[in-house]
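Q: what sequence does this backbone want?
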């Protein structure tokens, strides 16, 4: 059953022949601009030119054209479109599947005409006038908002220009300050090096005296050691022949290194530096230093001064026996255990003594240094030279700090002057401000030209969602989107980043936040800076917004 769906109004019937075709004869679902293509006087050729059909087959609820052009007013072609004129509001092209689907899609109700809709037909009344009214009011409101926003934007741009001029002034001043500060620094540096030269010279005198004192002490020490060694030589040289033999040493139980009750020739030879016998000179130089710690320890823990051994030395040796630290204590215990184990002791003893000696030396050096720092008294003249040098260093550091402070300020201003704050600098006022948006879980925060972050609503730390990167709006409006990059890494994922979409508004406001992709956030920021009021955008608002 094919039937024509030509809409012919009463006036059309009357004026059929005289009327302007475009106005009057229009098959259902055809827009005014396409009317000429549907001429009931002619056969109809599909838009793709493939097929020509008798006009009766247009809107006969049977799809003849592959491109769907023969059925603009039915749902027969799945790829067709239905045009609602929506007089009083805005025309719309619907997918043909929306035709007679029971739902009012056109505000003029023309998409539902077969009476088969869920409410029994005719329920789609024409509400285009009312909707158009609302839309016009909305567009009006929007236009006014944009106008006001644009005024605010001009104000922001004006302030930005002022701020920029101010910064340039500041920069000029800072450059002068920098020159001054540098000159002062150079001056202070000269004073400092002169003062330090004097200080070095003055202290050199003290250092020399100190070193002389040390050398003298060392000399005395050496003499005393020699004296001690000589007296020990006499003690061991039982037959007074001026040489000490293995046999002579073997009579001294102190040299029983493995403590088996016997001093073997091997043991004695070790102390004679692998010789069979030694004279006084080699004894003093080589053998006694090797024997001394061992001999002293075994000669009954404590040694009384006398017999060529000075009080200082006995103290040294007695101290040698005292464990300094916990590990020493442990070694001491091990040592006591191991002396009963005759076969293993030899190496052990040597090690123990060597390390003890070293420890002792270190402690001694440290004490010396402390003494140097705390006890040296300078005469008034030297003290003044030192104080002058301390002062000069201090003043130089101050001057150096001033230079760095000025340079930091200059850097900051230069950076800020280089930032792109929009065509008229209108976005500059947003720097230093922060805006928040709260959803069910998080409080999001945007500090323009600085960073974006979020923190959990019920407490917890900030997570950085990105630091200011650059403008990423596509031409012609580069300033429609901001990008914040290099935020904290997602667990097992990329670094977070945030894209900020800017929209015109009369105040600065974060209006929405979403996460369209994992770790990629989108913030919507309203700001007058994004308003661009011109004839173009105002008329655009009236026609397109809805
Ligand atoms: C339409 O096409 C048929 C052939 O398919 C032809 O006979 C007829 O004359 C055409 N009509 C018009 C108005 O061109
Ligand atoms: C405002 O729009 C006009 C034209 O649409 C454009 O030339 C101008 O650059 C725009 N100004 C801003 C600040 O976006
Ligand atoms: Ca058809
Ligand atoms: Ca519908």
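A:
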């Amino acid at each position: 059953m094919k039937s024509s769906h030509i809409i012919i109004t009463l006036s059309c019937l009357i004026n059929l022949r005289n009327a302007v075709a475009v106005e009057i004869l229009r098959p259902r679902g055809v827009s005014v601009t396409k009317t000429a293509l549907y001429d009931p006087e002619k056969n109809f050729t599909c838009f793709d030119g493939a097929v020509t059909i008798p006009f009766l087959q247009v809107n006969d609820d049977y799809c003849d054209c592959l491109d769907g052009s023969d059925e603009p007013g039915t749902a027969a072609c799945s790829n067709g479109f239905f045009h609602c004129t929506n007089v009083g509001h805005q025309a719309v092209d619907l997918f043909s599947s929306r035709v007679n689907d029971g739902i009012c899609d056109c505000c003029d109700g023309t998409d539902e005409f077969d009476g088969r809709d869920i409410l029994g037909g005719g329920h789609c009344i024409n509400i285009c006038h009312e909707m158009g009214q609302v839309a016009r009011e909305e567009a009006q409101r929007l236009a006014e908002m944009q106008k006001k926003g644009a005024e605010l934007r001009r104000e922001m741009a004006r302030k930005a220009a002022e701020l920029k001029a101010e910064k340039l002034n500041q920069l000029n001043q800072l450059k002068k300050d920098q020159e001054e500060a540098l000159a002062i620094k150079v001056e202070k540096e000269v004073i400092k090096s002169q003062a330090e030269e004097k200080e070095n010279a003055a202290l050199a005198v003290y250092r020399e005296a100190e070193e002389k004192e040390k050398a003298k002490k060392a000399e005395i020490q050496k003499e005393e050691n020699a004296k001690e060694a000589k007296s020990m030589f006499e003690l061991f040289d039982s037959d007074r022949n001026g040489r000490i033999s293995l046999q002579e040493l073997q009579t001294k139980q102190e040299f029983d290194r493995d403590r088996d009750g016997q001093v073997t020739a091997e043991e004695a030879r070790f102390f004679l530096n692998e010789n069979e016998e030694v004279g006084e000179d080699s004894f003093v130089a080589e053998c006694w230093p090797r024997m001394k710690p061992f001999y002293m320890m075994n000669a009954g823990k404590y040694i009384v001064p006398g017999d060529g051994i000075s009080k200082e030395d006995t103290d040294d040796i007695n101290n040698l026996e005292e464990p300094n630290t916990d590990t020493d204590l442990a070694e001491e215990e091990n040592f006591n255990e191991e002396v009963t184990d005759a076969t293993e002791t030899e190496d052990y003893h040597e090690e123990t003594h060597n390390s003890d000696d070293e420890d002792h030396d270190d402690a001694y050096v440290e004490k010396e240094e402390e003494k140097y720092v705390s006890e040296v008294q300078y005469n008034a003249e030297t003290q003044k030279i030192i104080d002058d040098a301390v002062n000069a260093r201090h003043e130089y550091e101050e001057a150096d700090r001033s230079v760095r402070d000025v340079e930091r300020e200059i850097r900051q201003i230069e950076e800020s002057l280089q930032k792109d704050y929009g065509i008229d600098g209108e976005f500059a006022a947003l720097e230093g401000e922060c805006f928040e948006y709260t959803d069910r879980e998080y409080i999001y925060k945007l500090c323009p030209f600085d960073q974006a972050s979020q923190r959990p609503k019920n407490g917890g730390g900030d997570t950085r969602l990105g630091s200011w990167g650059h403008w990423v709006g596509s031409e012609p409006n580069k300033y429609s989107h901001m990008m914040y990059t290099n935020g904290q890494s997602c667990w097992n994922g990329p670094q977070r980043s945030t894209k900020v979409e800017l929209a015109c508004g009369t105040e600065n406001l974060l209006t929405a936040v979403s996460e369209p992709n994992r770790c990629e956030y989108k913030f919507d920021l309203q700001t007058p800076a994004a308003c661009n009021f011109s004839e173009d955008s105002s008329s655009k608002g009236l026609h397109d917004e809805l």
